[in-house]
Design brief:
single chain; mainly alpha; about 475 residues
Length: about 475
């Protein structure tokens, strides 16, 4: 599942609820539900696709683990183009960019469904990802500029509930489509949803833009794109046989481009990724800890359907019913997150939940055929429940000390690393899976290979516990409504 909800800073209300500039009849609930429509489409696409990977691999005549590129190519496009989303929205207007992004997303979805080969599918996924790169961050930016801090918890509830329907219905829908129809219908489902989103956005969302936007950082965009693209595809190539040399070359190229970008950002007034945001304590700690946790979050939707179908021998429909457990757990947590944060605060809550959530996902590496399927389902529900809390908290506390004037830059920066770490999670899982298969001289992954992959990513995510310990005890007190001594 994606985590995409971020709260507002103080004093940025724009909707009719707060005498803002929204169209007549619009309020923050309406705006949140429209943005949730886009999130529903993106989340549905992501969770449905994961269930279909083995079937797609058979059609494209490749090994199932190699289909990870269908996921990472989309996430790569997100990571590369999200940094531009804030500036583009400021210059051309959030409403116009949001609607155009939805249009590009559904055009890419149509092309994905028509793709006859894996390379063409990857190209279509890149186009789809460019639309998603503008669609979701700009939608978040609309909400950030439309809701006052005092109303953000309510707005988050209106936003997250429809958005969570996608991950809940995605796995079983994907399984049913692959079992009884054709996996291409997975992408065509986006068309009616996207068209509805375009219509509603035109009717209810205000065209919010900056009066004097700064110039676009073209050099920064090129360097950051080169760095992110080479690093991600380098890690992706590491999971493929005979591609070690290319992987090393791409990783080195990405590292050099990243260093050049950091040097450029220090000399630029408005860099496309404002690294100075890392000096804000709550933002930097949320970004670092959340990035570590997202390694597991990115890997789980890739590993779990493969294990259910290839190791357990379940059908796509059965696999889909099993993998929806994490979405159910995530949905169940949303009603409790605010009360837990109010009672225990961000620091204590995140330390406990990051440890328990990581351990719960590590238990997936113990799944074997002698496990009753209800027990497997229960572990996944608990895992989703605990992980959902973490990302609700991370996405909230990150903006506690961010002012209105830096909200656009912070949104783009945070969202970029969200998608980057989700991609890195898939790459890490794929590499660990491939390495274990090579070590055991297996052509197809077995239970031991999946265990190695799960334990590799969860070991990385466990480090987030130590980062969370560095939060101030009073961090986010106003957002959680918790008084401190």
């Amino acid at each position: 599942m994606r985590d995409g909800i971020v709260p507002a800073g103080n004093g940025i209300a724009q909707t009719a609820d707060h005498d803002g500039g929204a169209p007549p009849g619009a309020n923050y609930r309406t705006v949140a539900l429209i943005i949730a429509c886009a999130m529903f489409m993106e989340n549905l696409d992501a969770t449905v696709l994961a269930t279909a990977l083995p079937a797609m691999a058979r059609d494209f005549h490749v090994r199932a683990p190699e289909m990870s590129i269908a996921l990472t190519s989309y996430l790569l496009a997100l990571a590369v183009f999200i940094p531009a989303s804030g500036t583009v929205a400021d210059r051309y207007g959030a409403k116009r960019v949001f609607r155009a992004a939805i249009g590009l997303f559904i055009a890419g979805s149509l092309a994905c469904g028509l793709a006859p080969t894996l390379p063409l599918l990857v190209a279509a996924r890149l186009a789809q990802g460019i639309g998603g790169a503008m669609m979701l961050p700009v939608g978040r930016l609309v909400l950030l500029r439309s809701v006052a801090k005092r109303d953000m918890v309510s707005a988050m509830s209106w936003l997250i509930m429809p958005a969570l329907i996608g991950p809940i219905v995605g796995p079983p829908v994907g399984g049913l489509i692959v079992t009884y129809l054709d996996w291409r219908w997975i992408f065509w489902l986006n068309l009616p949803i996207g068209i509805l989103g375009i219509v509603l956005a035109g009717r209810f969302i205000a065209d919010i833009s900056e009066t004097a936007p700064h110039g676009f950082d073209w050099l920064g965009f090129v360097l950051s794109s080169l760095a992110l693209g080479c690093l991600l595809f380098g890690f992706e190539m590491a999971s493929r046989s005979g591609a070690a040399g290319l992987a090393v070359l791409m990783v080195l190229t990405g590292a050099v481009a990243g260093i050049l970008y950091l040097l450029h950002a220090r000399r630029t007034i408005h860099p496309i990724l404002d690294v100075s945001l890392m000096r804000v304590p709550t933002f930097s700690l949320s970004l670092i800890a959340g990035s570590l946790a997202r390694i597991t979050q990115g890997a789980q939707p890739f590993l779990l359907p493969l294990m259910m179908q290839l190791a357990f021998g379940l059908s796509p429909a059965q696999s889909g019913m099993m993998t929806l457990a994490t979405a159910i757990g995530s949905f169940g947590m949303k009603g409790l997150a605010r009360r837990l944060l109010h009672r225990f605060g961000f620091r204590s809550s995140l330390m406990a939940m990051s440890f328990l959530g990581t351990v719960a996902y590590a238990a997936c590496g113990l799944f074997r055929p002698d496990w009753p399927l209800p027990a497997v389902f229960a572990v996944l529900v608990v895992s989703g429940f605990l992980m959902s809390f973490q990302f609700t908290a991370y996405n909230t506390i990150a903006y506690d000390e961010i002012g209105k004037e830096r909200m656009s830059a912070a949104t783009s920066f945070y969202a970029t690393f969200q998608q980057l770490m989700l991609s890195l999670g898939i790459c890490t899982a794929g590499t660990a899976l491939h390495a274990s298969m090579v070590w055991h001289a297996r052509a197809a992954p077995g239970f031991a290979d999946f265990s190695a992959a799960f334990w590799t990513v969860t070991a990385i995510s466990l480090l987030s516990v130590f980062v969370n310990a560095r939060f101030d005890r009073s961090a986010g007190a106003e957002m959680s409504g918790r008084t401190t001594a």
